[in-house]
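Protein in question kept in full:
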Amino acid sequence: MSTTRPLPTTPAQAPRRRRRWPWVVASLGVLGAAGYAAAALTLGSKTASDTTVGGVQVGGMTHAEALDALRTGLQDKAKAKVPVAFGEQQANLDPATAGLSVDYAASVDGLTGASFNPVALYDRLTGSVERDPVLAVDDGKLTAALTEIAETIAVEPKNARLVVKDGKAVVTDAVDGVAADVAKTADAVTTGWLKVGKINGALTAQEADVTTEEAESAKREVADKVLSGPVTISVDSKNFPLAADAIGKTLSFTETNGDLVPSYDENALVKAVRAAGTKAGVLKEAKDAVVSSANGSFHVEPSVDGLDVDADAVTAAVEKAAVSDDRVATVAAKAAPAKFTTKEAKDSLPTGVISTFTTHFPYAPDRTHNITLAAKRLNGAYVAPGETFSLNAWLGQRTPEKGYRGAPVIYNGRLTKDYGGGISQVSTTLFNAIFFSGAQIDQYTPHSFYISRYPEGREATISWPNVDNRFTNTTKGGILIQASVGPDSITVTFKGKKTWDIEATKGPRTNITKPQRIEDDKEDCVPQSPNDGFDVTVGRVFKQGGKVVKTDYLTTHYIPEDLVICTHPNAG
């Protein structure tokens, strides 16, 4: 019996099996990457859990939330003024004016958004992020704002000074100044704003142009030598001393391009030389001829010529001698002729009356006393041809020591009392004598309101020291002023050489203004009667040989004289 066994099979003939593990791994990798990407996207939508920008907590927020939180957290701080300290001085900088602002979008930029960096993802989960806000700075506005502040805190340096006082040269030390360094301060502001409570501004020292050492040098080399002793002035081989102190009083030092430069008051130095020379009998002052009148006749005191120095050469000669070893200044002599010679005085003698004028006044003892006192002083004044006469200068200040009494005067449109009240009557009478003489009117001031006892537009008040009555004698001869006072009038007469025939004209009143009524309860009240205010123009017609040569016009504006009623029982 036979058994049949199947033949053994070969490997090529065996069934095929698929390898599946790589696909599993790949599938698992795909699933892991998807999860990682999902985590990155999820974590990227918010900021790290502990994130601050400029001290404002924005952790765990979306981009929009972080932006809103940062705006809210910084808006007050970003608007607040910024203290900027410059040493002991402090200024407040306004951010808006200075062009300082926060770029909020840029400040939160990058805090959110997908990241596949494992470290970044870990930081998003557990990390801490701290950053400064991003600033937007307008450099031009910041510089302008700091420049304005710099001007307020700057301390100018003080130059050393060298002065001559009481015959000695005295040095005052220099003091350095300080100035703000705008560029460095701007850097400090942009670096420290919103980070520190106060910005420390930058200062730079400003050295004085003239240092103490330079002033000490000028003292040794110039001032001390000038003050070391007298200088001998030699004029026409005649000598006289000029004291060191007299020179020192004319010496000063001024800063020029950083140096102390000596200079002399030329007028004062020439005056000192003349005084010393006159005292020594080497120089002589010229004396003008003097005209006087008594008993209707004139007397001429002769002029005397003098001897002077060449004023233009004095300063250079003394300046050189004062620092030299021999200390001798040679100055040329110069004739000093009288300004008003004997011949001119005789030729100018008055030959008759050229003008006269009289004004009247009411009874008032104190006022009349003042008028009489001033008229006595005025009487006999002589004004040489070409000379200018000032009534204020001639009378001087009116004081009780000179015998003047208190009497009504006009002040700010109201009557009040002052010493010398009534002198305007003298001035007005003199003014009309000037007017009709044809002399040149240099200065006059009408009363503020019109006073009926005076000619309209032809009157002149006076007050010490500036309200004056001045004229220049432009007539052919000298003018002798005669003044006399009667019981109720004053007359001023000019004697001289007739040059013009003068006629006066007057236009109508214009711009008439009515007065007001004022009741005054003060004890020092002075009552007033009402008068209109107005404008008026007067003319001065100059004639020679019956022909008009020229005409001058004077226009006066008068304010109204208000009615003042004094209600105080002791007023008036």
